[in-house]
Amino acid sequence: MAQSSPFFNRWLSQIGPDTAFDVFTDLIDDAAVFVVDADSRILFWSSGAERMFGLGSEKVLGVPCHEALGCHAAPNAAELAAQGLIKAQPVTLQRPGDKAMACRRTARAFFDAAGEFAGAIELLQADTGEVPVTPSRTDVESFHGIVSRDPVMKEAIRIIRNVAETDATVLIRGESGTGKELVARALHRESQRRNQPFLAINCAALTPSLLESELFGHVKGAFTGAVRDHPGVFQQANGGTLFLDEVAELPLELQAKLLRVLQERSFMPVGSDRAVTVDVRIIGATHRALREEVKAGRFREDLMYRLRVVPLFLPPLRERRQDVSHLLWLYIDQHNRQGPRHIETIAPGAMRRLLDYAWPGNVRELQNVIEYAFAVGRGTELTLEDLPPEFREGPPATLSALAMPLRPARRHDEAELIREALQVTGGNLEEAARICGMSRATFWRKRKKYQLT
Fold first, then answer.
1. Which of 99, 141, 164, 421 could in theory staple to 432 by disulfide, Cβ–Cβ 3.0 to 4.6 A?
2. Domain end residue (candidates: 91, 110, 126)
3. One domain, residues 34 and 178
4. Taking the CB of residue 389, how many other CB atoms lie within 10 A of it?
5. How far apart are CA 108 and CA 149, in angstroms?
6. Buried b / exposed e across 231-266, counting CB within 10 Å, b at 16+?
7. 27 and 164 belong to one structural domain
8. Do the beta carbons of residue 216 and residue 352 sit within 8 Å?
9. For residue 15, what are the domain limits?
């Protein structure tokens, strides 16, 4: 953080802050510097901006930024309020004469005493050449539909890439809606089995008798209604991959049969006296802790070890706060391409509720919320009224305050704020200090003061 001497404010008051700011921006003659208010109206327009865009201040002051500059694919005020700081964001602008101009946008948001977005200082620098550019986030990992900026998710993607090259059995742990089947399909598509079948079955969706028949098949006459032989999913997936979702819900008697398949690659269809041999890669998934299920006597310990050769944990969306804004716009863009509604902005109140929400249904719930908004709303702005009822009822949660850098803390309990910041960042002191708006040294001192580890 920049430092100044105690005499700086006195000097600044002597020459006038407006004069100092004007002179400072004139020194940046190869870029446009401007200031916007909470509604994105331009309040200040540097001489460098006049030269860069050929627009005098009398034409842009008081005009919303997107109207004055013809911004395309630039983060709006609500997203800037959420991020606090944008560095070198690619944007496409429209200069007089309809000539497209590729720029890099750097912006710093400011907030009032109540923590509300109050405006920003922005800087635009022209890219080499004058061709449109597509905005991208170099810190975003995208892999077979799995999209994240979160370090834990990036590590999971790295493991998926490596494990996919083998036939190791994988156990995916995560809450409902975190993308467990998406991961299973990614493992299959990256493996040597990619041209063979991929089948999925939910072990919690069927009764034990039906589940046994679906998994291992049955022969004609095995039970009432078995009028013909039926190959189970193990046979159907032979040579490929079988995804057993909610594998912790398997009845104990079927767990023994699954263990045999994993050990011997063979099993007996229901009603048959002949073993069937298969070559299937097993990927399991559960929202439960299998070790706890073993302690409770609901799951076989030997099967647990067979399934969790490579354990993989998917964090819930509430622990991936930096992904929420990116995923929102990702799904908005997908719906924009489908029509008929086209959303270009998110109202600040709606964005605040979306970022503050705890997302108990994780990514699947976020997708559903965007689909709801496109179904019930109209116009180019997503408003609070476009969101499901739970977003409009009661005060918003405080989770997003921890995910919004540079936003002043609204909480009176400083110790609780520090404790939650440490929890959200997994103990990363530098990131936790940034979330709390403190220097690393101040954060370390306060952490010691409150005896927080």
1. 421
2. 126
3. no
4. 6
5. 20
6. ebbbbebbebbbbbbbbbbbeeebbebbbebeeeee
7. no
8. no
9. 8-126
What does each of the 453 residues of the chain score in pLDDT, given as a tens digit?
Answer: 455 666 777 777 777 777 777 778 777 767 888 888 888 888 888 877 777 777 777 778 888 877 777 654 444 555 565 556 777 777 777 654 545 667 778 888 887 776 677 888 888 887 644 333 333 444 677 888 888 888 888 888 899 999 998 999 999 999 988 999 999 999 999 999 989 999 998 988 888 878 888 888 777 766 666 667 778 888 888 899 999 999 999 888 889 888 888 888 887 777 777 878 889 999 999 998 899 999 999 999 999 999 999 999 999 998 887 788 888 888 998 898 887 888 888 887 788 788 888 899 999 999 999 999 999 988 888 999 999 988 877 554 444 333 443 333 333 357 777 777 777 666 777 667 766 666 667 777 778 777 776
CA 383-352-117 angle, 5° bins? 105
What is the three-class DSSP state of 114?
coil
> Is residue 46 located within the same domain as residue 95?
yes
In this structure, are 288 and 333 located in the same domain?
A: no
Task: Read off the DSSP letter of residue 383.
Answer: -
In single-letter form, the type of residue at position 186 comes to A
Distance of CA 414 to the CA centre of its chain: 27
d(CA 397, CA 129): 45
Q: Domains in the chain: how many in total?
A: 4
Q: Which two tokens stand for residue 280?
A: 């299937």
Same domain, 197 and 164: yes
Q: Which of 67, 17, 23, 63 is nearest to 47 (CA)?
A: 23
- pTM for the whole structure: 0.56
Q: What tokens were used for 204? A: 């919690």
The gap from C-alpha 401 to its chain's centroid, in whole angstroms, comes to 16
Q: How far apart are CA 201 and CA 113, in angstroms?
A: 53
CA distance 330 to 144: 14
Whose tokens are 């936790």? That residue is: 432
Q: Cα–Cα distance between 216 and 259 in angstroms, integer?
A: 13
Do both 189 and 284 map to the same domain? yes
Q: Could you give the maximum distance between any two Cα atoms of the chain, in Å?
A: 98
Residue 359 is encoded by which pair of tokens?
A: 């997302």
CA 71 to CA 101: how far, in whole Å? 10
